[in-house]
Amino acid sequence: MKLLSQLKTSSFQLALLYMVVFATSVFLLLAFIYWRTAGFMAAQTDETIEAEIAGLAEQYRGRGVNGLITIIRERVARDPNAKSIYLLTTEDFLKLAGNIGAWPDGARAQSGWINFTLNESVGWQGAERLARARVFEVQGGLRLLVGRDVDDLATLKRVIETAINWGMGITLALALLGGFMMSRSTTRRIEVINATSRKIMNGHLSLRIPTRGTDDDFDQLADNLNQMLDRIVYLMEGIRHVSDSIAHDLRTPLTRLRNQLETTLMLVDNDDAREQAGRAVAEADQLLATFNALLRIARLETRGSTADMHPVSLGLLVSDACELYEALAEDKEQVFRQAVDEQVMVDGDRDLLFQMISNLIDNAIKYTPEKGEISVSVRAEDGKAIFEVSDSGIGVPDDEKESVFQRFYRVGKSRSLPGNGLGLSLVSAVAEIHKGVITLSDHYPGAALPGLTVQVAMPQHREEKRKIKTIPAKPVASSAGEQDSPADSTRV
């Protein structure tokens, strides 16, 4: 799989393109060398044959047929290796002189250049060899064949062709290996950038892309990206500092204002004035809750992974939170289910984990209509502690599932409900401290009320024998009104 991904990289494809261009140029060069070498040797052979024919013709003009027969016999006697091929016959193809005994198949009825094989069919006594000859008629009806043994030339051609094939194969193999090595080197540098970028996107804003100090293109790119990250972090810290400072500076006067309104509420006798003062106190409480949530998130983000971690029973924490929130579910006649493995342990901060659990359960109850269903579970899976809350409420659209963890972000359907949009931001901050991963999904995909399943997966402290505590669903009697959360938690 890793090799397949390597082949898909743009650097490998570029190297492959270079390999094709390089291999094509090598092939053209070798083909030109072959054409020039083989062509020159073939032309040289033809010129040798033409020279012998010219010599025989001159002897024939001066000495006649007998002289021609004599010179052919002399040449055959002087050439024991039979590099030259001769055959002189009558019009009826009776041999008069030569070192082969018969005409090659198909050569009797033609003139000009022929290629044939020296074998028994032409009266050849030795091993089969290739030959090239020219055939023409002599005055008086005689027929003459003059040629050369070209078997060595054919062998040389085959050697050159084999060398070209091996050369092309070796060239392609080396080019492919070189392209793969170049691509691998480039991909390693890119993968370092990608891996660091993914960690930064997951919240590790302090990381920077490493450089080699070679000041090459990748180092320059890494330096530019690092400078961009420094600028982004600087701007984000500035915005965060401003919001945290505003929350911190306004919390004290708001607290005094709230206390004065509460004192006024106790002193006012008029019912209308008392109602207005009560609403003002409630609004002040909401503002204070918002500022407290902002400061709490800021402390968590500053604290990071330096939180005091101790082995904590996630199952027991969830059981305690469920016991606390069951009353709210009863007031809305909701079915509240639990499947809790009390032996699941995590390394974490008990108070922070309880805040995260309370927020998620409180949200599920708040955004689920009356007589709806809520399920809470804790289990161990593949070395992870899984905390999951599911409901049958309004849910979160797919295109907003990533945005709900931003500060003050609220889903359109929930804007009419109480809240400040900080609950899931707090949950995200707590999960990040505990190296947890949050996943949102529809509980009933495609339904009018798709509901929502929130899953938080954190590293498990250790594997232990699990004991499942299952509390069956119990329908609850209705009660008037909707209560506030019994825990001091920030809601979405």
From TrEMBL:
It catalyses: ATP + protein L-histidine = ADP + protein N-phospho-L-histidine. The keyword Transmembrane helix applies. Residues 184-237 form the HAMP domain. One of its GO terms (molecular function) is phosphorelay sensor kinase activity. Residues 460-492 are annotated as: Disordered. Keywords: Kinase, Membrane, Phosphoprotein, Transferase, Transmembrane, Transmembrane helix, Two-component regulatory system. The keyword Transmembrane applies. Its main location: membrane. It holds the Pfam family HATPase_c. It is found in: Membrane. The chain crosses the membrane at residues 12-35, 163-182. It comes from the Bacteria. Residues 245-462 form the Histidine kinase domain. One of its GO terms (cellular component) is plasma membrane. CDD domains: HAMP, HATPase, HisKA. Residues 480-492 have a biased composition (Polar residues). It is an enzyme of class 2 (transferase). Its EC number is 2.7.13.3. This is histidine kinase. The lineage of its organism: Bacteria, Pseudomonadati, Pseudomonadota, Gammaproteobacteria, Pseudomonadales.
